[in-house]
Amino acid sequence: MVQYDYIRYLYFNEGLSQRSIAKKIGVHRKTVKRAIENPEQKYNLTAVKDKPINGKYEDLV
Question: Its domain of life (predicted)?
């Protein structure tokens, strides 16, 4: 997520505090804390599952 990258940049490179980052960006302090503690974002990509429209009525058709 781009916002998390920006938060980490401000914290580690610019040396801003968590509170000042939260005020500057307009997010909650817990969001800033989460972005700093979790350097990598986890993506949950799931495979597309086939869901037939007629489903349980397929035998009748």
Answer: Bacteria
Is pLDDT above 80 for 39?
A: no
What is this structure's pTM?
A: 0.62
Half-sphere exposure of 36 (CA within 13 A, CB side): 18
Provide the residue ranges of all domains of the chain, joining segments of one domain with +. 2-48
For residues 2-36, one letter each, b for 16 or more C-beta atoms within 10 angstroms of the residue's C-beta and e for the rest, the string is: eebeebbebbeeeebebeebbeeeeeeeebbeebb
CA distance 61 to 51: 17
44 contact partners, CB below 8 Å, separation of at least 6? none
Does domain 2-48 fall under CATH 1.10.10? My reply is yes
